[in-house]
Amino acid sequence: MSGPNMGMPVVPSTEDEDDSFGEAEYAAINSMLDQINSCLDHLEEQNDHLHARLQELLESNRQTRLEFQQQLGEDPDDDYDCDYDYDAST
């Protein structure tokens, strides 16, 4: 995307022109909305992928912490409890 007008020329209106949109203007707006929708879909996919990877990392870190505590002979419940589950839907 190239900026706020997304490559569409900005033509100042004159008093003689009709203020209503024509088909070309609606088609241009629809095209811009389609591009925005596509970008938002891509961002949502990336966000979902990152969320899944972070959940995997969190679980891996929990497992590693428990293994270290077991090796040291500590009770895992005595240590700092970080069983916080992130919920991205809020």
UniProtKB/TrEMBL annotation:
Keyword Coiled coil: yes
Region (Disordered): 1-22, 70-90
Pfam name, any one: UPF0184
Coiled-coil portions: 33-60
Acidic residues bias (residue ranges): 74-90
Signal peptide as annotated in the record: none
InterPro entries per UniProt: BBLN_eukaryota
UniProt keyword list: Coiled coil
Protein name, per record: Bublin coiled-coil protein
Lineage of origin: Eukaryota, Metazoa, Chordata, Craniata, Vertebrata
